[in-house]
């Protein structure tokens, strides 16, 4: 199945059924690993919304959840300071699972981890539906739950956007040469 967005050509990469099956097995792994815990799932908006919703429906351990947005401020002589807006839960001594749609360069995830480094969590793990191993610029030992390792091509659908659009597609498409 192909799709044309302006000049760009996309081909289906992961069907909704394939995604659901993988999300269910990630949830099963998490249920097992957290059987004696009450984790806090933190979804990083906007891209995570579909993955988070489908994952949470399969989580059977008692848990809390929240969504955050990353806000970056560039100081004149300072490195960018990143703040997480919207957690709303005291994270001290909690077991956190960060939920991301994609780890591409890893910069966003680095910012999220930075922002969470001072909250006094008991543990932090990461669940990302997609990872681009050939693009990631950092090591993430806490990236335990990965849906699919994919190649470098730009992808859209299931929460992932191109210029703010196409997040609503239920399958995931990848950019291919026209
Ligand atoms: O690993 P990276 O190279 O940092 O890219 C991954 C991030 O980029 C996208 O977020 P974006 O900032 O575009 O916001 P969005 O979730 O609202 O689309 C995506 O949702 C990831 O959070
Ligand atoms: O391949 C991608 N698609 C959509 N959003 C993204 N953000 C980082 N990489 C991507």
Automatic annotation (TrEMBL):
Catalyses which reaction(s): IMP + diphosphate = hypoxanthine + 5-phospho-alpha-D-ribose 1-diphosphate; GMP + diphosphate = guanine + 5-phospho-alpha-D-ribose 1-diphosphate
UniProt cofactor(s): Mg(2+)
Record-linked InterPro entries: HGPRT (IPR050408), Hxn_phspho_trans (IPR005904), PRTase-like (IPR029057), PRTase_dom (IPR000836)
Pathway as given in its UniProt record: Purine metabolism; IMP biosynthesis via salvage pathway; IMP from hypoxanthine: step 1/1
Enzyme nomenclature, EC number: 2.4.2.8
PANTHER family: HYPOXANTHINE PHOSPHORIBOSYLTRANSFERASE, HYPOXANTHINE-GUANINE PHOSPHORIBOSYLTRANSFERASE
Catalytic class of the enzyme: transferase
Classification via Gene3D superfamilies: 3.40.50.2020
Superkingdom, taxonomy of origin: Bacteria
Species in which this protein is naturally found: Rhinopithecimicrobium faecis
Family, per entry: Belongs to the purine/pyrimidine phosphoribosyltransferase family.
Entry's localization field: Cytoplasm
Pfam families named among the record's database cross-references: Pribosyltran
Gene Ontology cellular component terms for the protein in this record: cytosol
Annotated ranges, domain Phosphoribosyltransferase: 18-161
Keyword line: Cytoplasm, Glycosyltransferase, Magnesium, Metal-binding, Nucleotide-binding, Purine salvage, Transferase
Name of protein: Hypoxanthine phosphoribosyltransferase
GO biological process terms on file: GMP salvage; guanine salvage; hypoxanthine metabolic process; IMP salvage; purine ribonucleoside salvage
Sample GO molecular function, one term: hypoxanthine phosphoribosyltransferase activity
